[in-house]
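Checked the freezer inventory, then went back to the computational side. Two predictions to log before the end of the day. The first one is the construct we discussed on Monday; recording sequence and tokens without edits.
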Amino acid sequence: MTDEFDDALALANGPAGAAPAAARGAGRRGVARPRHAPAEGAAHVGPAWESARATAFRSVRPLPPRRLPLDLALGHTLAAPLTALTDLPAFDTSAMDGWAVAGPGPWRLTAGEPGLLAGAPAAGRLTDGEAVPIATGARVPEGATAVLRSERGTAADRRLRGPSPQPGADIRPRGQECRSGTELLPARTTLTPAALGLAAAAGYDQLAVRPKPRAEVLVLGDELLFRGLPHDGRIRDALGPMTGPWLAALGAQVMVTRRLGDDAEALHEAMSTSRADLIVTTGSTAAGPMDHLRAVLARLGAHLLISGVAVRPGHPMLLAELPGGTPLVGLPGNPLAAVSGLLTLAEPLLRALADRPAAAERHGRLTDEVRGHPEDTRLVPVELPEPDAARPLTYAGPAMLRGIAAAAALAVIPAGGARAQDRVRLLDLPAA
């Protein structure tokens, strides 16, 4: 069968997009090679969808660590645990504006406004019955037993009056958050803005990280136009503008998107000279007269790790290992089929390169029945109108983008289909 089956399903599923409800192992040393390559023109026979994802994840080693300054580390993965280089806070600090007081009141003020400010050196020791104005974040002087909030006290004639606070009130004690040497974040954590703030607070200027994998996109096909309206049998390239941003959303650093047409020599040169950690091609994964990808891979001596996957749309996708160890993901030329390839092969492969763990599985209940392929997994665009609900969308054929452009996730439909209220796995789509 071909992806024409998916087009037929998209039409048969009706206006709601579904029929109405009715009754890290081998690394770059290699993984198991397929025993057979399909005969030219034959249907692609490949691993099951989940098995293909596992193979992609196992097919590479994490990239070597490097050190980056904090302002360049966002989105990278920690190569080692983040441990505190100091106590947090590093000294007792005031949690509020007010007065540092020693013992019960009333108190004698030892200084006037502004008193102790954040960033100022330590002040002299307080003795019982003394107080000093203090700002939020300022270092609490020795001898202080609490901080009296500004709204609770009255200062006049160098005297402070107010209710005596409980010992330790509104003081952030040294080491309250952590002690020096405490593990703050484990290795393999993706660095978020908050994580970078924590690293800075803990004393870091640089971090050891797994770098974002560098990706190169090669767009294939002489039939593609790169501006204007379709004409004379040629169509607009939808994958070039989409693939790079999608890879970036999956954690890659996209170096370049190159448009090579159906030039086998240009493809050979691009693949043999690339400095990327991952090459992604669009189109040319089948066995048509102008599909040169497999022949060029054979000419380069690449190892074909996956030649087709039992998933619709996108079953002609492939995964190869170039002689230098660089992985190549071949996406089918139909847009939704290409998205299937990105989430089936590129997403787990990028996680492995960046040493990020596999994403936690998420599930939802279908609002409508979805017809399935008799043998293969099917990926169907869905919207999520409620936290546990997944509504299949129309325009879900392999050549269509309209459905996935409105979708929040892809539902993983097992062979044979799924009924309304069945729980299915959901693959989240990039939000931006």
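The second is the one RB wanted added to the comparison set:
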Amino acid sequence: MKSFKELGVGPQFIQALEENNITAPTEIQEKAIPFLMTEERDFIGQAQTGTGKTAAYGLPMLHKINPDVKQIQALVISPTRELTQQINKQLFRFTKYAEKKIFTEAVYGGEKIDVQIARLRRPTHIVVSTPGRLIDLLERNAINLEQVKTVVLDEADEMLSMGFKADVDKILAYTNSKKSRTWLFSATIPNALKEIIDEFMDDDAERLVVSNEKIVAKGIAHQYAVVDINDKFDVAVRFLKAQGDKRGIVFCRTKAGAQALAKQLYSKNIQAEAIHGDLGQRDRDRVMRLFKSKRLQVLVATDISARGIDVDNLAYVLHYQLPDQFEYYTHRSGRTARAGKKGFSLAFVAPSELGKIDELEEGLHISFEKVDLRQ
């Protein structure tokens, strides 16, 4: 395995990486960074969530920024507000020791657009945005992308599954007219994404596929409990109360399910609140402040709403409902055992779902331990 220095990353960025406990490149970083640093072609990187994609594109992108040009030179599009905020924070951390300041700005729905327009009047080199908010800014002529040379689509398949294809088409039609290079990162390449690749990306675009192996954090203990659907809530209450002051995230598949479960848990004196796509930005920020400040014990989340959640010292993840896709399990479980710490990921499964545990073990190269949560 090569070091970040051997990949061509400058010492000012390496110092910031080490400060954030990023010392050895992941597979996608090792393969993508040298290409993105030196080539001026489009790029397609297929890798699951949790493989280090932000650094894989972020470090080359930062190297290409000219701090003396006080205009937007790079654009990152991501599907959710939380992921947009996380990417922005990560890029900010990477630039801590840069010789000249590189300014990034996050824009997303749920915050007053006038506030964001005012921020964009300041010198800005990189903008991280959700698709809908970027379209709003372009239609108001409130953002200048004339000097953008790098466009990153992060979690591209999620953007399409959330209904953003028309917005992505508009954005790429605009940036392609400015001769920008496009870097696309996605866990899967569904047909709708193939259409975007065929229409907006060069035929000679570099393609990289990273295997599913070794993408789940090593510090996670994977467990499952067989629970009948009629007993699931009562078992969850016992389990969560047994955790005491430890904090964790409980995952549901739907917004309605997350909201209902949070209310039910609260009625049992468990400090729980839900975060999902229908929650306004002010309420989302309030819930996350409570959770990060440890005034909230349990966060009940959907897969999409949890994109970008980065909270230290979470003891566990509970899959109240199993996810539909392998990469969702990886993303969910990765909320615990961060920064070298230990944690566990517990899945509730009905007797009819036991085959899914076998599929997860085989597909993600992990082992599950069966636990008994009966009284």
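For RB: The chain has a mean pLDDT of 90. The chain has 14 helices and 14 strands. Let me know if you want it refolded.
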